Amino acid sequence: MKEDHGPAGFGSCTRRRGRPPSLCEAERRALILDAASRILASEGLQGTTMAAIAREAGMSKRTLYELFEDRDALFEACVRRTRLQLVRPLTDAERALPLAERLRILLRPGGCLTEQSKAILRAVIAEAPAHPELARGFLREGPYGARRSLREELDRAVAAGEVEIEDTDATARILCNMSFQSPVETLVDPDAVPPAPEAVEACLARIITIFLHGVARRAKG
Fold first, then answer.
1. Residues 178-197: tens digit of each pLDDT
2. So where are the chain's domains?
3. 25-213 architecture in CATH?
4. Which of 16, 61, 172, 181 is the S-S candidate for 151 at Cβ 3.0 to 4.6 Å?
């Protein structure tokens, strides 16, 4: 599957001069994902059909199927794009930083859940029994995707001799559970106030310190 990068999901598009402007593939994908997110938030999983998404995006169903194999693939792409906005991959320059800094970047959310994202999450939770595959797709491309990114970085750190970790997958799970705020409070309480950024940063610094002095038996960074 293709990754959707950036807030709008647009990649680089090359247009030919002298021709009427048309949407490139990256722009079409972004518009479709935007439309799917709106439908998911307002209609839930049951109302999110390929026909409804096509109407919302102002495109044909054929165009949707040219870019996404089916509704499940489209839904997973929506979740993947949201996850990449919150937990982005490291750049080449960032990979040269000490491990503590790399973990801080990976574990520091790049934003907070929007009202649309909360509505989608509520729909997934409410309709998971009726749509188990879509619910599993949400987990695979959402929280499990963030965990994969962290595990891959831990694997690189082990290979480079920065740390000694017997089970990087279990360690990544522990770190994610410690670092990422549970969405339950914000989903249940509409008046819940997210913690201040400085409080989040201070808590994350403590978590990384505990990790480097505890789970990782030897660290250079």
1. 888 777 777 788 777 777 88
2. 25-213
3. Orthogonal Bundle (1.10)
4. 172
